[in-house]
């Protein structure tokens, strides 16, 4: 199936580490629940950091400073039904309190210890890179390729 006309989606995500834990959100689609870094799609005319800041507020209730880009991945399934470029930024909370907002796929938001990450279903499949990034402040490599699972 060729879907070139659909275009490539750009998704920005923000890694916020506080007290040694990382903030993740849980989505549910097609009966499957999974975790991911909070974030979402970039709108036409919106900067990457503005999109990341908006998405964090929408999903978690936190106002954040979006800081440095630390990793890039793609999500391209074998049937080519979508193509997502994921840009991962560091972030720092400025204000707000954690609450799950009304969204058609958002189910939960939690602070997760790095030791618990391997037990979770995380999409894209960046668990190993997140653990290294949390421990060292940097991804093991900046561009990690296709992470569709």
What this model shows, in words?
β3 (21-29) and β4 (32-36) form a beta hairpin. This protein has one domain (4-144): Nucleoside Triphosphate Pyrophosphohydrolase (Alpha-Beta Complex), CATH 3.90.79. 15% of the residues lie in helices and 43% in strands. It has a five-stranded mixed sheet, covered by helices on one side. By secondary structure, the chain is α+β, with helices and mostly antiparallel strands. The radius of gyration is 15 Å and the shape is globular. It starts with 8 loop residues before the first strand and ends with a strand. It has two helices and nine strands.
Radius of gyration, CA atoms, in whole angstroms: 15 Å
Q: What is the CATH top level name?
A: Alpha Beta
In one word, what is the shape? Answer: globular
Distance between the termini: 18 Å
Largest sheet: 5 strands, mixed
CATH second-level architecture: Alpha-Beta Complex
- CATH homology group: Nucleoside Triphosphate Pyrophosphohydrolase
């Amino acid at each position: 199936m060729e879907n070139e006309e659909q275009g490539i989606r750009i998704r920005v995500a923000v890694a916020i580490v506080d007290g040694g834990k990382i903030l993740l959100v849980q989505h549910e689609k097609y009966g499957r629940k999974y975790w991911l870094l909070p974030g979402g799609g970039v709108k036409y005319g919106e900067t990457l950091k503005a999109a990341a800041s908006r998405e964090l507020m929408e999903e978690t209730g936190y106002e954040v400073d979006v800081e440095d880009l630390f990793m890039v991945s793609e999500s391209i399934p074998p049937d080519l039904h979508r193509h997502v470029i994921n840009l991962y930024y560091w972030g720092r909370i400025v204000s707000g309190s954690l609450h799950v907002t009304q969204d058609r796929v958002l189910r939960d938001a939690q602070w997760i210890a790095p030791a618990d990450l391997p037990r979770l279903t995380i999409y894209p499949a960046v668990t190993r890179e997140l653990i290294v990034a949390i421990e060292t402040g940097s991804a093991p490599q900046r561009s990690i390729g296709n992470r569709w699972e």
